[in-house]
Amino acid sequence: MSRIIAGAAGGLRLQSVPGQGTRPTTDRVKESLFARLQAWGMLDDARVLDLFAGSGALGCEAASRGAAAVTLVERHAPAVRVCRANAAVVHRALGRDDVVQVRQGSVNGYLADPAVGPWDLVLADPPYPLTEAELAETLALLAGRLREGGVVVVERSSRSPEPRWPAGLRRFEHKRHGETVTWFAEPDATEPTPD
């Protein structure tokens, strides 16, 4: 079981996805990531998208720390059930049932809908077996879909190469945590961003 580290729902335990196929973010990585995002002012009233959500732990953490709206996107039915259960835990803690929404389906299918977005923060924690080409396709669908000042965070194995950033997104930082590395990208200043 993982837990929410801080915020209004801090300390609450979250369900984990049964079986294999997901790789939960460790508390150490999550704590480092969210400390950085809070220092940048990325969470208050943010619109957050959690892709390849697994148990939804990253999106639930964002909601606990002040995000206004969080969407969890996950394809696999057992993980979707866990996302919904964890969203309900956060809703009870926050006294609201509209903060965390769960969408079942492929990430790229969700992003192909021109009606979704824009977002302030996108958290992408794809399974390690996802190929670099598949990740590049997902990132290309995100380009131009962030609000001004928005950030995309990609979590990968430290053995994986840097993601291939599409036109419209530019890496500005990365942080290694043992076997995990987090990559941070922002809208490219030369590309228009939505309001």
Automatic annotation (TrEMBL):
GO biological process: rRNA methylation
Superkingdom classification of source: Bacteria
Record flagged with keyword Transferase: yes
Keywords from the UniProt entry: Methyltransferase, Transferase
Tagged with keyword Transferase: yes
InterPro entries (UniProt xref): DNA_methylase_N6_adenine_CS (IPR002052), RNA_MeTrfase_RsmD (IPR004398), SAM-dependent_MTases_sf (IPR029063)
Signal peptide annotation: none
An MF annotation (GO) of this entry: nucleic acid binding
Alphabetical list of Pfam families matching this protein: Cons_hypoth95
Annotated protein name in UniProt: Methyltransferase
Organism encoding this protein: Kocuria dechangensis
